[in-house]
Amino acid sequence: MTKLVHKLGLSPTLAFHDVYSLDDPDLLAFVPRPVYALLLVFPVTDTYEKARTTEDEPLPEYSASGSGEEILWFRQTIRNACGMMGLLHCACNGGARGMIAPETDLANLITSALPLDPSSRAQLLETSPSIAQAHASAASGGDTAAPSAEANVDLHFVAFIKSAENHLWELDGRRKGPLNRGKLGDDEDALAEKALDLGVRRFLKREEELGGDLRFSLVALAPSMD
Question: Is-catalytic flag, 17?
Fold first, then answer.
């Protein structure tokens, strides 16, 4: 993940770090701070799908665009690209956006995407050779081949971002739009107790209460340790 976002233009002063616990202070202390974003990876379950459709049903389709947007959200139209969508949501929002080098793929993507509506942004990603090349390069560098667009993949990626306005946003390209999960304090990052309660813990609590699947992994976008 880190290799991919660096290739696209994110500063090497940032990196993704594994989060080994949501509650153990000693394990949480291994994660450098501040944390700008969290990326949650989890199996898609009936519990999740029911909760997603129920929450989305009354919501309007997101249609905002322009530099006044608090966050930059991409609708996912490319199959089996939820990992890439999650990485883009982490890198292109909050404090991380200010650490993107100018004239790089990420910088150019943001400039092109900002004035577009969500449908046009999705088309932009579909036709972006730099995004496709970076994704293919990162996949080929791993131990497991990237899934084809036709494959059935049951893992999904959701990003949690702290915005410049101190809101915690849940960003998932399969939803109707970005979801504002609540207000954070100036001194609270995306891994703060309140942020976890509003985001990841809330997510996992629902799975536990409704008999879903509690397998998950979590990574944090934070200062590099190199």
Answer: no
